[in-house]
Amino acid sequence: MSVLNAPAHVNFASTETVVEHFKAFTNYLNQQTKLHADKVYIRYSSDGTFKTLTYADVDRIAVNLACKLAKHVQNIEVVSFISDHSVSYLMVMLAILKLRTTLLAISPRNSEAAAVHLLEKTGSKLLIADAKYEAVAKGAVSKVPGAEILTLSPFDIEALAKEPLDPFHSQVLDLDFSDEDILKTALIIHSSGTTAFPKPVRYTNRYLFYAITIFEILINNNSKLESLTEADVLLPIAPLFHILGVSLIFAVIAFGGNCVFLEKLPPSQAEISNAIAVNKVTVFGAPPLVYEQMVAYLKKTKELALVQRLKYALTGGAPLKDSLLEWFYRNNINVRVLYGSTETGTIMSSDFDRTSKNYSSLRLYQMDTQGVSYGVFETNDSKEPHIKHLYIRAGSPILGAHVANRADGGYNTQDLFIEDPRYPGCYNYVGRRDDTLIMKNGEKTNPVPMETTIRQSPMVQQAAIIGHGRECTAALIQLNKAVAQQCSQEDIHAAINAIIKETNRECPNHSKIFPEMVKILPVDQVLPSTDKGTVMRRKAESLYQEEVDMLYKNFLEASPHANSPNADTSAWTAEQIEDFLIDCASKVLDIPRTMIEDRPQSLFDYGLNSVNAIQLRHLIAQHFEDVAPNFLFQHYSIKSMRKALMSRKSECSSEQMERRYQETQRLTEHYIKRAKVDFPRASNRYVRKKSKVILLTGVTGSLGSFILRELLRDSTVEKIYCCVRGDDHQLKDRLVEAITSRSLDASLLDTERVEVLPMRFNEPLLGFSFERYNQLKNEVTIVQHCAWLLNFNMPIDYFDRECIQPFYNLLKFAYKEVNPMHVHFISSISASAAAGNEVAEEPLPLDSHVAMPMGYAQSKFVVEILFNYLTVEKNFPCYIERLGQVCGDSINGVWNVSEQYPLMFIGGGSVMHKMPGLDTAIDWITVDYAAASIADIMLRTAYLPANTDQSVYHIVNPHLITWSDILLAMKKSGMKFEVVEPTKWVEYLAQDDTNPAFRLMPFYQDNFTKESFKMSVWRTEKTSAFTPIISKSPVLDADLFSKFLNHWKSVGFYKPPV
Predict the structure, then answer these.
(1) Helix (H, G, I), strand (E, B) or coil at 349
(2) Rounded CA gap, 783 and 695, in Å?
(3) pLDDT band at 829 (very low <50, low <70, confident <90, very high)
(4) Measured between alpha carbons, how far is 185 from 122 in angstroms, rounded to an integer?
(5) Are 193 and 109 in contact (CB under 8 A)?
(6) CATH number 3.40.50.620 given to 437-541
(7) 273: phi then psi, degrees, rounded to nearest 5
(8) CB 627 within 8 A of CB 621
(9) 417, 645, 750, 772: which one has the fewest Cβ atoms less than 10 Å from its Cβ?
(10) Mean per-residue pLDDT for 195-216?
């Protein structure tokens, strides 16, 4: 640990001692300057050579400049400065700090409008500008009443270094410091403004002390690492108007190290190599983009020895691909990762030991006096419990002032991580909450690693992956001008195609970029990026909106007339059409032709999904007229497609819908035929003394978690087997995370009554050994099946393969000729939504038209009919719980923020201040009352024989209210909005793609701009009589809605009006 110009107990191992001793950051700089006065602090590039300034030189120049600026900043609370990063920038920053006036550091990449925004937000009345940016500064100041401009001519640093100390400096500078200085704002740095105007973040003196601890805590406090001393030289490729630049450049002052300033940022790789060689640099810091370019440079020049000598090469501000870090590691270049933000400074790092393979996984290192990290990881989404969101605790000294965005005063970083199983306690960055592209089919795409891969091509300067609210992803490519100008168009396209293929190999199937969805920009056009090299994705899409729209239009609406002429397919034979279709499917699915030839199966069995179906449809539409967007969901086998194309008849929507109903009808009858053979008629001789042992699925979902809690509360339940999807070693953790993420008591799981099992129902014996299968078959008495895929786009045969067939295997497990298990199924009101104005609590007729016209509802219908058959004909006690709309629980208000209605409430009521006026009855039930009712039904029927009169229950709120009642509850909870027509609401939403509700834009367009589907009323008399607890379900009033808002506020989803 470095020795400071302070008593021995003051050091950065306990940063608070440094804060309490020095009080103000400028005082710390003053004292350290005295300690290191004659040592070199700055090495700056000038006229092709590097010149040096000692700590004393830098201090004297800054003091003299402060004396000159004093009259200009008098009585001004915030002084702004706009200039390029340079040694002159450092002098101005130090001078303002010495005057103890708050400095707003404005990036010169800001537009005039952004500069105006920053001046207004900070109340700055003086803008100091380098002569280069005088025009922007004058324009900004003219729009801020009372603001003035001070233009600085270029500094002659050599001349300034020779000037004597201003004799009146002691009269100008206040060198008396007290505890009041600790929490005073010393510096304001703004965010990059990736999605909107940049946000100013205020740094107190305390914050700045914590910001510069990087080298002291991570290196000099670690006896296993090579310490940094006055002999070490830092080369930072990070400007002083970014927190990384501030943290690195001022961090070396602790040990008297020196720092290199280049003439411009960003530099070329040749300039970096020269600076490292000439200045004998030992520590390097740069954003990932510089390292991406460095790999290509080093591979070309073979000049590895220069960077291998670096003790530490640090990167942060954006992700650096693991494969590149691995390359550096293999070549003995010690590149290590930092994580932080404008609001928090640097708070995580990988292992700095060059022998460690942990070069990328991050560990929190900023701790309080009790050794507890200021950062906390929490489950981001209960559906993906392994993905963690990082937030910073309230009161943390590493937080900028007034950045709190949680109800408890903490700060949501919006950054997502996954724990690295190789290094417990270390996390890998996976992206931002707002990075995630929610595509039209509901799939999620993380564009960051895809963009990182694409940028590895020497042909590419920058890339943006888009697709939010769209059918598939697309890529905007900015070419590397220097490389592209030396290549032909064929070479450029070949290089881009190659890197897109590599990207597709690494990303999920639903995120793959089709060749037709790549837009290569002209060589003189650029994508907007931050100073750190991060692409401004939304700005890029907005800037090239016309090109993007045309890209999607040409792809999704392809026809023979929109493309180059093709052969006349009207004369093709059945064999030619089938051969063509096999070729297309083989190409899209990336499988051999032989796998598809002479096979009647659905292409979905071979890996077709809602995304690559778009590409396959595109290829077909280039040769055939009138290929509907949903063609492959209507005709999903080669034979079916061939017949449809030969008929040249476009099926209308009503015909498509009827065909789906007929398929559902046939599938239902198919399962009844199977059940006739597979299940002999059982006998029921249930004994009440028999222990209740339950097998529960869907337990990591919201409803399943609450059902588990209710069952564990009942002492008559001896054991609960929880079937969970995932890797065996993660199953218990997933269950614990599911419980805790819903504010339930995880200690309930600390019992032998709960055992977690893998869920593999599509495998023989449900994936268990013969002995385990039979042990469970003899032990389990009740099965509750909550697990079911939620996808409103997929057809019935998809649900048959993914859900119904595995569930049928579970039914065979549950069946016994004597006393079969009592089996419960969470159905959906959508399975009976077309059964009439009122739906009785009784089995459905064998008519698939009673279900809503979508695969999800139809799959539930199939199971309901099968259950009724098994109950009546096979004496197999099967129970249906028809579930309606479920909302958050009545105690904590935990309601998943990714669902339709939370998105509407916040996007409409809080962001737009507009809500749609709907004509619908509301029978929503809170998840805890729904679970309690279902658990009660399970336990009350545990010993009953099969009986159709007691086999169907409606889990909806018996107390109906109206949509107007919902809107009133919102207003009573403090939300202010106007009510508009649903179509108008959709129009307003379409204008703001940053609105959280925008991700469900296709859903709202389908439901709010067309004639609405009239929902039935589900009767609850029998259910209420059987399980009285459902009658106590609270309606959604202001009290309940306030609980939802409080929860959403605690997770950063809702920001109440000030």
Answers:
(1) strand
(2) 5
(3) very high
(4) 11
(5) no
(6) no
(7) -60, -40
(8) yes
(9) 750
(10) 88
Per-residue HEC secondary structure of 128-197 comes to: EEEHHHHHHHHHHHCCCCCCEEEEECCCCHHHHHHCCCCCCHHHHCCCCCCHHHCCCEEEEEECCCCCCC
What average pLDDT does range 932-936 have in this prediction? 98
CA atoms within 13 A of residue 849's CA, in its CB half-sphere? 5
- Distance between CA atoms of 567 and 560, rounded to whole angstroms? 10
Contacts 24+ apart (CB under 8 A), 830-836: 830/854, 830/856, 830/857, 830/860, 831/857, 831/858, 831/860, 831/861, 831/864, 831/882, 832/861, 832/864, 832/882, 832/1016, 832/1018, 833/857, 833/1013, 833/1015, 833/1016, 834/1016, 835/1016, 836/1016
Mean of pLDDT values over 232-250: 94
Residue 630: pLDDT above 70? no
Burial of 474 from C-beta contacts in 10 A (0-12 / 13-18 / 19+): buried
For residue 998, CA distances in Å to 593, 895, 975, 991 come to 40, 19, 19, 9
pLDDT score at 827: 97
Which of 9-18, 190-199, 265-274, 381-390 has the least mean pLDDT?
190-199
Peptide bond into 266 cis (omega under 30): yes
**CB-based contact 25:99 (threshold 8 Å):** no
Residues 6+ apart with CB under 8 A from 403: 201, 343, 411
In the chain, residues under CATH classification 1.10.1200.10 are 560-651
What is the per-residue pLDDT across 999-1038, written as a single tens digit (0 to 9) for each?
777 667 766 766 555 678 999 999 999 999 999 999 999 9
Query: Which pair of tokens denotes residue 767?
Result: 């994936």
Closest CA to 105 of 191, 218, 233, 195: 191
What integer pLDDT is reported at residue 565 of this predicted model?
46
Give the pLDDT score at 442: 53
- What pairs with residue 187 in β-bridges? 103, 203
Question: Which of these CATH numbers, 3.40.50.12780, 3.20.20.70, 3.40.30.10, 3.30.420.40, describes 212-360?
Answer: 3.40.50.12780
**Residues facing 345 on adjacent strands:** 341
Q: Is 844 helix (H, G, I), strand (E, B) or coil?
A: coil
> For residue 622, is pLDDT > 70?
yes
- CATH 3.40.50.980-classified regions of the chain: 56-205
CA angle 188, 193, 195 (to 5 degrees): 150
In terms of pLDDT, which residue wins out, 4 or 955?
955
The residue-averaged pLDDT of 55-81 equals: 95
Range list for CATH 3.40.50.12780 in the chain: 212-360
Q: Which tokens is 825 given?
A: 């199924």
The pLDDT confidence band at residue 562, using thresholds 50, 70 and 90, is very low
Q: Is residue 188 within 8 Å of residue 127, measured between CB atoms?
A: no
* Distance from C-alpha of 793 to C-alpha of 806, rounded to nearest angstrom: 20
CATH of 56-205, one of 3.90.1150.10, 2.60.40.10, 1.20.1440.230, 3.40.50.980: 3.40.50.980
Retrieve residue 495's tokens. Answer: 């290089």
Say if residue 758 is exposed, middle or buried (CB neighbours under 10 Å; 0-12, 13-18, 19+): middle
Give bridge partners of residue 363 from the DSSP assignment: 349
Helices (H), 961-1055: 963-972, 982-990, 1001-1008, 1021-1026, 1038-1050
State how far the Cα of 330 lies from the Cα of 351, in Å rounded to an integer. 16
pLDDT value at residue 564: 44
Q: Which CATH superfamily is domain 560-651 in?
A: ACP-like (1.10.1200.10)
Return the pLDDT at 898.
78
Pairing state of beta strands 952-955 and 914-916? unpaired
Q: Dihedral, CA atoms, 591, 597, 603, 609, nearest 10 degrees?
A: 20
pTM over cut 0.90: no
The pLDDT confidence band at residue 407, using thresholds 50, 70 and 90, is confident
